[in-house]
Amino acid sequence: MPGIFISFEGPDGAGKTTALNKLMPLLQERTNKEIVLSREPGGSPISEKIRKIILDIHDQEMDDRTEALLYAAARRQHLIDVILPTLNEGKVMLSDRFVDSSIAYQGGGRQIGTKEVGEINDFAIDGHLPDLTIYFDVTPEVGLARIKKDHEGAMDRLEKEAIDFHNRVYDSYMDIVKANPDRIKAINAQQAPDQVVQDALTVIVNRFPNIFNKGE
Ligand SMILES: Nc1ncnc2c1ncn2[C@@H]1O[C@H](COP(=O)(O)OP(=O)(O)OP(=O)(O)O)[C@@H](O)[C@H]1O
Ligand SMILES: Cc1cn([C@H]2C[C@H](O)[C@@H](COP(=O)(O)O)O2)c(=O)[nH]c1=O
User: Which family does it belong to (predicted)?
Assistant: First the structure.
């Protein structure tokens, strides 16, 4: 496909959304290609409706496999509505979370199993993996403390899970990063926000020097 697909991953409170908002204009000034920023779960009208159901704090009785299937369904629709059209038009697609989130949160955190969650997601993504994934490395303690400090009253159903759940998510991410050294690059997300943005920018520009080459 003519475009490039970059996903951003990390535990809750890793700082992806904050960094992406600053990264977008820095990347845009280095390329003539249009850059599209989206997120999961969500990113398209149907997927945003599914997001509301998944993250609703009142949905306490949601079964773990139902949750995994809903994330995969939201992903499929996002892929069809946004990601594939963007890539087919030769643009740069940035997604705040993609399939690795399901492997880490549902496979590891919920203990459904990485193989099982991988299989339902293989059906959803049909081979469309990101060209590059940037992993924001932050411990669950630091990430959750950031969220509690700034948005405690607005925490969603997943963020409100026990620390054991978040520790399993973190461990699972570590395994995913180790298993995919070519696709996934980890950056230290416990640094100051501007340094995190600089590190992400360096990884992207080094990986795609022919695309982000304006102003050199
Ligand atoms: N490098 C940083 N150092 C300290 N605080 C940060 C940093 N980056 C972001 N924050 C703060 O941490 C909180 C979470 O940041 P943000 O929403 O960007 O994370 P996220 O990775 O998108 O989280 P989630 O996936 O849980 O939504 C925000 O209050 C933000 O201001
Ligand atoms: C894509 C995806 C996400 N999650 C979790 C991770 C977060 O706790 C929420 C999403 O909220 P964010 O503020 O937009 O990061 O959902 C998950 O468990 N599985 C997934 O596939």
Answer: Belongs to the thymidylate kinase family.
